[in-house]
Write a structure and sequence with these properties.
By secondary structure, this protein is α/β, with parallel strands linked by helices. The chain contains 7 helices and 9 strands.
């Protein structure tokens, strides 16, 4: 599994947009976060800056993980009743410093709960001590220029981005929430611990917004993704309380097509639906989404199940961000 998806080559079914502009320096093959696929005899030896994308792509689809057990673990419901999903070993996200081919017997204890992410040596300094709103921007050029690493939250309108952000920092109104979609209309930067940023982006798919407004949101969001050199990863929020939406798959496809790092955050996992009413439970929708995403990607992206109501996934998200951030800073 890739640490980042800037080298991921999706088998696109319905690309949402194409770009004629070349990738900026931060997205090219010499970027330090262009890591190769892990799950090999010596995955650390495959981390490189100098490989071309074509070479990386060849390596990323070769040499499957040599582990006998098809399922690393199946987690039963925890004490808090949070459901889990089965995680095939070859669908795990393996960070730098972890070699599952040599340590498969002990790796199960390092898989973050409710996710496919293995906890690695860079997962430190994950707690949030301070959080403050810095500024809103409508252009990438207006964003903070201090170069601190940042993680962007994006998803369909009303998927729960602002609620998740508030949950991560344990502040009820750091990011304003609303039952009406389209509340977030700018690139909003929140500085965490004075060392990194959470970025709240406008939601997509809000049909009630004027066409010109939606076009502006989409344009400056895409420009931010393609040109923001301090962007460590995009966290794409998916509503797990409902079946997968085509627009979410297309958005994930576009991120992969443009080699933009991505983690899937499944929101609203606290919402339980009874089968007798025809609705699926969140963990079932998550599993269905995993099957669908495989039609777009050769390898599944990292993902985490979350709930802003119960704080499910909060610690897992912060640990995942920490190991991505610390590796980014070191390299």
């Amino acid at each position: 599994m890739l640490l980042h998806h800037r080298i991921l080559h999706p088998r696109l079914l319905v690309p949402i947009v194409s770009f004629s502009a070349p990738l900026p320096r931060s997205l090219r093959s010499d970027h330090p976060l262009l890591l190769l696929a892990c799950g090999r005899r010596n995955s650390a030896s495959l981390f490189a800056r100098s490989h071309s994308l074509s070479t990386v792509a060849q390596l990323a689809v070769s040499a499957p993980l040599e582990v006998d057990a098809p399922i690393l673990r199946k987690i039963a419901d925890g004490e808090d009743g949070e459901p889990q999903v089965q995680i095939p070993l070859d669908k795990l996200f393996v960070p730098p410093g972890v070699d599952l081919s040599e340590a498969a017997s002990t790796a199960s204890g390092r898989v973050l709960r409710g996710s496919n992410i293995v906890l690695g040596p860079y997962a430190r300094d994950a707690q949030v001590a301070t959080a403050e709103f810095i500024k809103s921007s409508t252009k990438t050029e207006e964003c903070p220029t201090d170069g601190l690493p940042e993680f962007a939250l994006v998803g369909r309108s009303n998927v729960g981005k602002s609620s998740l952000l508030n949950s991560l920092v344990r502040r009820k109104r750091l990011a304003l929430t609303s039952k009406k979609p389209g509340k977030t209309q700018c690139i909003n930067h929140f500085r965490i611990n004075d060392t990194w940023y959470l970025v709240d982006l406008p939601g997509y798919g809000y049909a009630a917004a004027p066409q010109e407004t939606r076009a502006n949101w989409g344009e400056f969001t895409k420009n931010y993704f393609l040109n923001r050199e301090s962007l460590v990863s995009v966290f794409l929020l998916i509503d797990a309380s409902i079946p997968a939406k085509k627009i979410d798959l297309e958005y994930a496809s576009w991120l992969g097509q443009n080699q933009i790092p991505m983690t899937l955050l499944f929101t609203k996992c606290d919402k339980r639906k009874k089968k007798k009413n025809g609705g699926k439970r969140p963990e079932e929708n998550v599993e269905d989404y995993q099957k669908l995403i495989r039609e777009y990607f050769k390898e599944a992206p990292p993902w985490i199940m979350t709930s802003s109501v119960t704080n499910q996934g909060r610690e897992e998200i912060l640990l995942h961000m920490a190991q991505l951030r610390n590796y980014w800073l070191k390299h």
